[in-house]
Amino acid sequence: MTGKSKVFICMLLCGVFGGIISTQAQLHVPSSYALIKRVVPGYAQNFIVQPLAESEARDVFEVEGNKGKIILRGNNGVAVASALYYYLTEYAHCQITWNGTNLNLPVRLPVPAKKIHKTTPYQYRYYLNYCTYSYSMSWWDWKRWEKEIDWMALHGINMPLAITGQEYVWDKVYKSMGFSNKDMQDFFTGPAYFGWFYMGNIDKWDGPLPASWIAGHKDLQVKILQRERELGIKPVLPAFTGHVPASFKTHFPNAKLKQTNWNNGFADTYILDSEDPLFAEIGKKFIQEQTKVYGTDHLYSADTFNENEPPSNDPKFLSELSARVYDGMKGADPKAVWVMQGWLFFSDRKFWQNEQIKALLNAVPDDHMIVLDLNTDYEPIWKRTEAFYGKPWIWNMLHNYGGNNSLFGRIEAVATQPAEALNDPKSGRMVGIGLTMEAIEQTPVLYELMTQNTWQNKPIDLDQWLPQYLFNRYGVKSKDALDAWQTLRTTVFNGKDIRDGAESIITGRPTLDSAAVWTRTRLNYNRKDLLPAWDKMIAAIPACKQSSGFNYDLVDITRQVLANYGRPIQLKWIKAYHDKDDKAFGRYTTEYLNLISDMDKLLATRKDFMLGPWIADARSWGTNPGEKTLYEKNARNLITLWGDADSPLHEYSCRQWSGLLNDFYKVRWQKFFELLKGSIETGKEPDFKLFDKSISNWEWQWINSSKAYPVAPAGSSTVVARQLYEKYRTIMGNDLK
């Protein structure tokens, strides 16, 4: 076979020219071997990869031992990777997560005594959310993406959202229509805000976007898609939903445009009416240009009204609009399948009544649309829509909002509800499960648990699964660690009363209240009930301290306990302030500030909880000092104010990170305490409105400043956690009674 022939066949396998809509993909054996070498480089010679005939309608894998070798069979790369991960977790007791990996393999690998055969009941295993690309992935390079794609394949993901490099396509399409560089600079946001730019919520903010970014991320997306397709992963690419530059009205004065506003402190954006002939023309151009550069697997994401209400609730209007959006895809790709986020049915339920939902969905042929029930573990929309009126749909866990650090989840729901829905006659055409969190790289237990559903059609028994998860994670069996997690299961992970994890008052803009707009401090458990988990994790240190996963969990649980303690101390200095007791006020505000510093020191021991890497990764994309400054500003802004100095979204994406705690949150509280101390001394009531204005101006100055923060962890997680336990545990036990 000639080199050119090999390349051509590989391109066909990878879907460069577009394949069929089915999720079935042929196995590309060299790619599977390459993945094994990346995951377990010292043991790759122990594995043999073999194709598995596609006799089944769903992905399938086998694991078998033969003459000291481990044979991994699958119908595609994802199936083979899943077979590898099944072997690593079930036979070698290993684990691979964002926050701690255990690949402590024995010199001689255990060989399975019998053949294991697994078939997934789910055609699709979806992954990612537009927001994830901003809150977690803004600054990823190829090295980081390569790790994530391997993680996807190992965990059975075969249908990820893939929006990297879309600005390149937009630039090509609009410039072919006569738009200038200035037009596009006024259109594109800074990189940290692409998630909302792609959804049509904002334009221009925190730009202008450098040309080097556009070119660099086009090349990055080509690599991402090539690797995904080699492994049998079918990415979901965007489609045109009507979002156009503000200058569109200048270039096309007769165009039918709708001016809309996201109501979060940003300027209006412009949506081209789907009735306008230009809508179909641009939609076709977009997909054609995208396909030319990135190929296609015929799966397209399009969300027409993300947190923006349609101009009419008339079912006829909504039906016609939906049909035109689909026609825009079909005009360029007759095999197009519209993958719709069902978030609008949750976030704007007053507008989206059953009649309106039905009209929007039924305008598209059933086999050309898939609905993502985006937040199923909290509110299953499928139950009130007759399972989306016949459309194929996917059960998703959303879990995290804004990348906030909070131990939280609905562990029982994730363990049981996907299989219960699958087996419910009323669930209609449930074709998959997925992960649609706004941010990743936290709470690994829920993601291991959710992906465990992929290869079974029955609920997961947590009594069996949790001990195995901990053994794989820590590399040892520890009763103390298991006892700690049984407490976590009934406290932070019971998730029954609130939508998402609570923030700590520490990260809120200073207040005398118990909460703020985006600092919602209500917990789904009593603070004191979490303390036994901390006790047991500290007790588990001698047995588990060599484990990276244990060190992460120890820091995270200690962080949560300390973050929760912020409120009881706040109550003490609030009382002292109202009592005009300056001595007590000084004592308790000092304790409060020391608590923040202690948290900062703890979090500095784990890279997972550090501001430095986030800013350094942002700056690394800059090709000159100006670009580096722009990207650093984007990085600082998103996790603090989110917008300008008057942003209503401040703290939405707050992070309990080392560096951010000491330099941002602590400084704000110091300024607030100076205000209150002055009030105690003078007897005059503080001007809180004036303070809020001054603090937002200070925040804006911080965002526009530059500072290099550490990128490597400092100190021992176990040593610092134990020190803080000895300092706080007795006090907490008394305060939280």
TrEMBL record:
Q: Which residues cross the membrane?
A: none
| A Pfam family matched in the record | NAGLU
Q: Report keywords, A-Z.
A: Hydrolase, Signal
Q: Write out the GO MF terms.
A: hydrolase activity
**InterPro entries in UniProt:** GH, Hex-like_dom2, NAGLU, NAGLU_C, NAGLU_N, NAGLU_tim-barrel
SUPFAM superfamilies assigned to the protein according to its UniProt record, in alphabetical order: (Trans)glycosidases
Annotated ranges, domain Alpha-N-acetylglucosaminidase tim-barrel: 125-456
Q: Name one GO biological process term.
A: carbohydrate metabolic process
The Alpha-N-acetylglucosaminidase C-terminal domain covers which part of the protein? 465-727
Q: Which part of the chain is the Alpha-N-acetylglucosaminidase N-terminal domain?
A: 33-110
Entry superkingdom = Bacteria
**PANTHER family in the cross-refs:** ALPHA-N-ACETYLGLUCOSAMINIDASE
* Protein name, as recorded: Alpha-N-acetylglucosaminidase
Q: Which organism is it from?
A: Mucilaginibacter gossypiicola
